[in-house]
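Lecture notes, unit on protein representations.

Consider one protein chain, 311 amino acids long.
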Amino acid sequence: MSNTATIDHFNLWSFDLNLLIAFDALMRDRNVTQAASRLKLQQPAMSHNLATLRLLFQDELFVRVGQVMQPTPRAHTLSVPIQQILSQAHQALISKDEFDPLSETRTFRIGFSSELEVILMPDLVAVLRETAPGIKLLARPANPDQIHRMLDDGIIDLGVGCYDEGGSRHRRRLLFEQSLMCCYNKDLLPLEGPLDRATYLRLQHALVSQKDAIEGCLDTALEKLEVKLNVAMAAPEFLTVLSAVTKTPLVATLPTRIIQRYAKIFGLTESPVPLDLEVSPIAMVWSAHSDREPAAKWLRDQIGPLVENFG
């Protein structure tokens, strides 16, 4: 039967839990000197522990009968729960975390940028249905300005996207370098061949932006090249951008993997981006405290091979 009583942390903090170890040693040895030797203490220190225990429990606990300290009825009553507490603590300290994906049941919350969610989630869910049917995934939108706070606050367990190192309490693993392509509706923009630089800069654009800057994550890259795009609209979701381009004479600039997967579905024409835009790589980020957690580590290890197959 599980104990659901609320733990009084302040009360426990003020109690020296080492006294429980001293009590258990006295119960086993029934002798102050031998109990002190068991704990590698001096005999006066063990005598002081016994005096403190007697004061706290308002009972003699152990009464000398000849050469032996006989436990009182109160001590016998305390001995069973104290042994259970110490045994559980010992097991918690020596046991190694075990993880079996086939039997694990939990929900992982993953923060994504929009394009990574739609690329990674379907493949990751398919893998988990085969290897870890009890594990569920909850995707959450997470822009670069929020991701580390969301990890710190326990809102998500893992982030996958265009995220930087964070602080010393975070961990990061690079997944792949990003590249960009663009696409447009040829019925609305009757252009021939790949877009050249002059044409690209002359046209109006639609971009993904998850922050206040309408240029989104391209703002720094554009500043480096000292060019400015005529951005007519920006939205946090790439599907919104692609939908807009189907209806208006705009050029969408998006990650290559998105263009390759979705441009044809939307009836759009693909083209290389005629600018040397440097964009940040895609990475996984997580909290340092989950760095060695077996289930969390296992999930991260599933993502690597899936990323290698992106295209």
